[in-house]
Design goal:
515 residues; alpha/beta; Nucleotidyltransferase, domain 5; 2 domains; 7-stranded mixed beta sheet; 18 helices; 24 strands
Length: 515
């Protein structure tokens, strides 16, 4: 397995931490993976520990490099990660507190405070983001207001990928794609927004310098080399947000190109030249950000829970004390159920609403349950709900002026291995879907950034042209088209408006909020 040059992409995701070693043509030759250790102290709360994330990266790297004949052939490494989560660092380099998960909603009061102080429309105009509790600035404010001692000891806040790159190289730099998920970066200027930070009472000195993805920031330190097995000659480059790294690996960099990234969450990702400025887009929950290559941008729709919905329904159907059914078994049962799931429809709002609804109190809903609905129909209704929600999110986005409607879609991520889901999606979306069969597309995107930073590729076009991974097309299923179209138009698009008031009331009652 001797190679002249090798690249490593690290992917620190919600479910697992992966390290993959690639040849420059995108062929994966070695890999390692461990589960992402996540802590759930109470409903709505979730966090990571920085040392556990680093330990997971070390383990995954050592697993992968053990399969490589000569690890000295690794010339570059970069990290893709979940967005929004930030690591608080003390002057001595130790974490001052937990790494609040991207989907943790404890920060609703901080989002409300920012709305009062700055305003949702102004935040959208500056940052391109619809104000949501999940964004990094809300997490920093939570520490400031709820953990003042930890906040006072924090001298630097790093996004997760940047933290791992810092542990590898000793250099603290924040990638633009991750910074653009913070509520603290001006999407027009590609710089920290000092007015936003001043309004929040946060010093810009606690944030790292900004750089585009693929910027070489240093080399692997002697200590990191000893721990991970990476050579000290290996260049460390900035990586980026996991969905955006995946978009890069799939070649989605030009306006009008659509990526559907299917993981725990799901991104419906449109590359763009300029920010979307209509404040109504922010009011509907759409977000924007910086691409990992050049000073390009993107507009993001999608689902906060996609693969998470599938995991949830599997766990729900697991007998107490029993082994959970395999995904293959569940999907086989779902495939045996008819299109339309015997009259059951699922709204996939398990954490909060997805664009075009800006509603953190919305909740998931099954409509049409009956005695006839069996396990297969229930699982199929979840898959159909994911597809309907993706279409709803995209349709409302492309209605805004300046957004180029896509004519085709590239799909990546673990969800693409579910053939039934992809058939349903192709039928519901009504546009051609091509699955990019790159092994671990997010990690590959990080590896491409590593290759650019290390000088393996001359430019972005050369990097993408070097890829040899296969692709396959997914076609709509004609006999499903009519029923899915009727369910989407006559039922699905009406569910949220009908059930949202009831969801709000239940959330308020359970949380103890006054009526």
């Amino acid at each position: 397995m001797a190679d002249a040059q090798l690249l490593v992409g690290l992917d620190v995701g919600s479910t697992s931490i992966k390290a993959v070693v690639y040849r420059p043509d995108g062929t994966a030759i070695a890999r390692g993976a461990v589960p992402t250790p996540t802590h759930y102290p109470k409903p709505g709360w979730a966090y990571f520990l920085a040392e556990e994330l680093w330990d997971g990266c070390v383990t995954a790297l050592r697993q992968a490099l053990a399969e490589v004949d000569d690890p000295r052939a690794v010339v570059g490494v970069a990290v893709a990660s979940i967005g929004e989560s930030v690591v608080p660092i003390a002057a001595d380099g130790t974490p001052t507190g937990e790494v609040v998960s991207w989907f943790d909603t404890r920060t609703r009061p901080q989002a409300t405070w920012l709305d009062d102080v700055v305003g949702k429309d102004e935040i959208f105009r500056r940052t391109g983001l619809s104000l949501q509790p999940i964004f990094s600035l809300c997490k920093i404010l939570w520490f400031k207001q709820e953990r003042p001692e930890q906040f006072a000891r924090t001298v630097k806040w790093l996004m997760v990928a940047d933290y791992i790159a810092w542990r590898l190289s000793g250099e603290a730099v924040t990638d633009l794609s991750l910074a653009s998920r913070s509520l603290a970066m001006n999407l027009h200027a590609f710089d920290w927004d000092r007015d936003m930070l001043a309004a929040a009472g946060i010093s810009p000195d606690v944030l790292a310098p900004l750089a585009s993805g693929c910027t070489r920031i240093g080399t692997v330190s002697a200590d990191a080399s000893r721990i991970t097995g990476l050579p000290t000659t290996c260049a460390v480059s900035t990586g980026g947000h996991d969905h955006v790294c995946g978009a890069f690996a799939a070649g989605v960099v030009e306006p009008g190109q659509l990526l559907n990234s299917l993981g725990t969450a799901e991104a419906v990702f449109l590359a763009a030249d300029a920010p979307l400025t209509d404040p109504e887009a922010g009011r509907q929950g759409y977000t924007q950000g910086a691409h990992v290559v050049g000073k390009r941008r993107y507009v993001l729709a999608g689902l906060y829970t996609s693969g998470a919905c599938v995991t949830w329904v599997r766990d729900l159907l697991t007998a107490a004390g029993g082994e959970p059914p395999t995904y293959d078994a569940l999907f086989a049962q779902a495939a045996a159920a008819p299109a339309g799931s015997l009259g059951t429809c699922f709204l996939p709002h398990l954490r909060l609403a997805n664009p075009p609804y800006d509603d953190p109190k919305s909740r998931g809903t099954f409509v049409g349950l009956s005695w006839d609905v069996n396990q297969g129909a229930l699982v199929r209704s979840v898959l159909e709900g994911i597809a309907f929600e993706g279409r709803r999110s995209l349709e409302s986005l492309v209605a805004f002026p300046g957004v180029v409607p896509p004519t085709s879609c590239v799909a990546i991520g673990g969800g693409t291995r579910n053939a039934l889901l992809m058939d349903i999606k192709a039928t519901v979306m009504g546009i051609p879907v091509t699955v990019a069969d790159a092994e671990e597309a997010t990690a590959l995107g990080a590896a491409l950034l590593a290759g650019l930073g290390a000088g393996v590729y001359a430019n972005v076009d050369a990097a993408l042209s070097a890829m040899t991974y296969p692709r396959h097309d997914v076609a709509a299923v004609p006999e499903w088209s009519s029923i899915y179209e009727r369910i989407y138009r006559d039922v699905y698009t009406a569910i949220y408006d009908r059930v949202a008031p009831l969801s709000h009331a239940l959330v308020d009652i359970v949380s103890g909020e006054p009526a």
